[in-house]
Amino acid sequence: MLNISHNKVYKYVRKGNYSTLVNVEAKTTSKVLRRILLSLFIVVIITSFLPWTQTIRSEGFVTTLKPEHRPQRLNSVIGGQVETWFVQEGDFVSKGDTILKIKEIKDAYFDDKLLARTKNQVNLKKQSVTNYSDKIAVIDNQIAVLKEQRDLKLSQAKNKLQQAILKVQNDSITATAEATNYDIAQQQFSRIDSLYQQGLKSKYDYEQRKLKLQQTQAYALSARNKWYNAQNEVTNLSIELSNIEVKFQSDLNKLQSDRITALTQQYEAEGSVNKLENTYSNYEFRNGLYFITAPQNGYVTKTATYGIGEIIKEGQEILSFMPMDYELALELYVEPIDLPLIQVSEEVRIQFDGWPAIIFSGWPNASHGTYSGKIYAIDQFISANGKYRVLVKQDPEQIPWPDALRVGSGATNLIMLGDVPVWYELWRNVNGFPPEYYKAKEQQDKKTKK
What we know:
Elements: H1 19-26, H2 29-48, E1 51-64, E2 72-75, E3 80-85, E4 92-93, E5 98-103, H3 114-198, H4 203-289, E6 291-293, E7 298-303, E8 311-312, E9 317-323, E10 328-334, E11 347-352, E12 371-378, E13 388-394, E14 410-421, H5 422-431, H6 441-449
Antiparallel strand pairs: 1-10, 1-14, 2-9, 3-5, 3-8, 4-7, 5-6, 7-9, 10-13, 11-12, 11-14, 12-13
Helix pairs in contact: 3-4
Protein name: Multidrug resistance efflux pump
Transmembrane segments: 36-53
Keywords: Membrane, Transmembrane, Transmembrane helix
């Protein structure tokens, strides 16, 4: 009983008359409970020293490792009107297959012979360039001929001038000689005149000497006049020589001016040719844009433009496209506080949406239905959502990811960190401390080797 009083009454009670009391006192519940509690305590103590893998939990979604493998949008480079659809949603297309044909809506490109006419303009301009080149060649030939004529004329004029200079020298000597003869004749006439006055010479001799004096004077005057004429001829020839140089230089300047004009016109024609060829190339390239083709092997997922005759603006989205060959990856986001704990090549356990799994956070090897991955890259700057983006790729040494997995599927991720005792993990969570910072084994091995 309760044994509250010192007066014992159980000696006076016949327990055999009370079956319920006999059954209650016969049970050993308290001993069993003590054993259970002791066993639980021992189990908790042992469990608290078991290794616990620290993890960082995050959400993410499936993407592709390479940008060219991700879903992409096909846009129309030019504006146009839908003329013919060659595919429908869900179709597989190979690289270069025609998806859509559009027709022109700008009046500047309505001419169906635009390419031919533009090509004709290019050819005509090229002919103009050739004509200007021929004109320049003709002008160059004229300049060469004119220079030869100038040289010949100048040589002829210089020869005449040299002859005139020599003639001046000759006439100068002749005039000097005739002047000397005139002086001698004057002296002789003076002597004859003195002798005639004295009566020693006859009048005939006097008149003969006087006639000779007059003839000598006439010869001297004639020689001097010829000398002056020769000097005048030298002056005239010098002027003529200058006139020849001026005339031919004027003609050369005119031809060179014509040549420069022809060169300018040639350069303008060449510029027009380049511009027309550029225009022709643009027209030719634009004709190829009327047919929108598949950039690579893949599937047409969803069209953004629909019926025949619908107007498409320049740069407008036409459809979304998924490449056939791609390498899946996982894109997840982690808090900035967890970023220092994450390193490239660390293991990540992944539970994809739609694939059932049993997860033991601290014992990943005991989990079932999860898949393994390796951290491939960590962004160097924070994303718009205030977290850092991490790319995870498949671990080739583990079970491959499901074949039915598609880009955009959600996933819950556990980034594996270091192993700590269970008691430490409980103590850390109670105190709100972050996981332990540790370095991956591979990186530690590399540093040890160094």
